[in-house]
Amino acid sequence: MGEFSALSTDLTASPPAATELHRYAEALLAHLAAKGTAPPAAPSFRDVPGYWLPPAVEALVALLSGDDPLDPLSRAAGRDQQQTALFLCLALAVSGQGSRIHASWLGTAFGELSLDRPVSHGQRSLWLAAARGAYGPAGKIFVLRKLDALAVPQHADPEQWVQALVPGEPTVVVPPSLADFPEMAEIPELAKPSVAAARLARLRGRVAEITSARQAEHGSAAPLDNSSGSPATTWAENEPLAVLRSLIGQGGPAGPMASLSSYLLDDLRPGADPHLAAIALHVAAPILRGVAEELEADSRLEPPDTLVVPLLGHPIELRPEGADPASLAAAEESIVTEGMVPRGRPWAAIVLIVAGVACLIGTLFTTRLLAAAAAAMIGLALWQLWQRRKLAEADARYVTAQVGELKELAEGAVWALHAYAREAQTRAQQAADDAAELTRLIRRGPRAAR
Questions:
Q1: If you write DSSP's letter for every residue of 270-304 in order, what string do you get?
Q2: What is the pLDDT of residue 216?
Q3: Number of helices (H) and strands (E), helices first, in the chain?
Q4: Would the CA dihedral through 48, 52, 55, 61 be positive or negative?
Q5: pTM (predicted TM-score)
Q6: What average pLDDT does this structure show over 403-415?
Q7: Among residues 326, 324, 384, 331, which one has the least CA distance to residue 353?
Q8: How confident is the model at residue 437 (pLDDT cuts 50, 70, 90)?
Q9: How far apart are the C-alpha atoms of 271 and 374, rounded to whole Å?
Q10: Position 354 pLDDT exceeds 90
Q11: Using an 8 Å Cβ cutoff, are 128 and 236 in contact?
Q12: Domain spans in the chain, listed from the N-terminal domain onward
């Protein structure tokens, strides 16, 4: 857009004139932001041939004083029409007197927007001023038409816009019917309707927040509207004043510019300026209508008649009348196979018993010491057999408990699916209400009259 191009070389040829000009322009901006009027002292700077700012300042002072600005305005526009229009539009907005601009100045100052080029700082500052009501309803309509002409929704990824409006969405939504079986909420056939309904409800809430926020309540301490005529002492962003300082040569280097889509997405995020959010919501309206229709359709999806659910690590097919006997039997067989530890013959105990018996027989021909050894070996063998039996009984108890728990879970899961099916009707109706309300809110638009 070039609104921050280098100053005329005539300034270097006349340093005193430039110093006087910049000193007065700086005082003028400070006075406008604080009191909405020009300083009481008459301008003391001289004209600088070829430089647009001196006659532009004269024109602005004449406008604020109620005098005829035509002569200095013509000279300034002849030197740089766009810079002059941008300076006057922003200065009058900052002073709270945006109603004094000429209808053609906004178009000249704004230039052309493009999806392929970054939004200039001057364009963004006019966008912000218009969104906050600095130029009345006509200013908002002007920006909306500029944005509408680019057909942004045709080049947008709907998911990006949804994420901007409602960031940090949960990946899993557990409905009340599945509270005792949260892992079932992750099954795609059950998860999709719940997630869609929850996302639609969040979208409705965010859109309602944007459209119901009164700009006067959420704006600056001295809001920009034509009825108040008060200066802009506080801005949601400092763009207009920063741009004005750059125009008069008092600002530092301009920061990086962002793309049109980046600005719009940032304006939709929670915590953004409600005036800008209303404009961005108008642009995103076609995208959100399509998203709402898809989410409503997904929320109406009915669960399948049969569903395979993992219970205790085993796939169980659930039907309306109960768990499938075949899958349940297969799971029980798997539990038995995994729970009953295979054990071979108790060879160690057998060897000890045989050795003990041999020692007993040997006691008929030898000492009693051999009899004690025989008794010890037979006792150890019996203890090993008892331990073996206890382990087998523990395995059996574990298998019985697992099978019982499996059947209980399967029965509970079937009842949970019945509750989910009943809940689906309420969820679908709520989603339909949310989609209808969201569409209604979007149609109301950014409320340019506020």
A1: TTS-HHHHHHHHHHHHHHHHHHHHHHHHHHTPPPP
A2: 43
A3: 17, 3
A4: negative
A5: 0.76
A6: 82
A7: 384
A8: very high
A9: 87
A10: no
A11: yes
A12: 10-300, 307-442
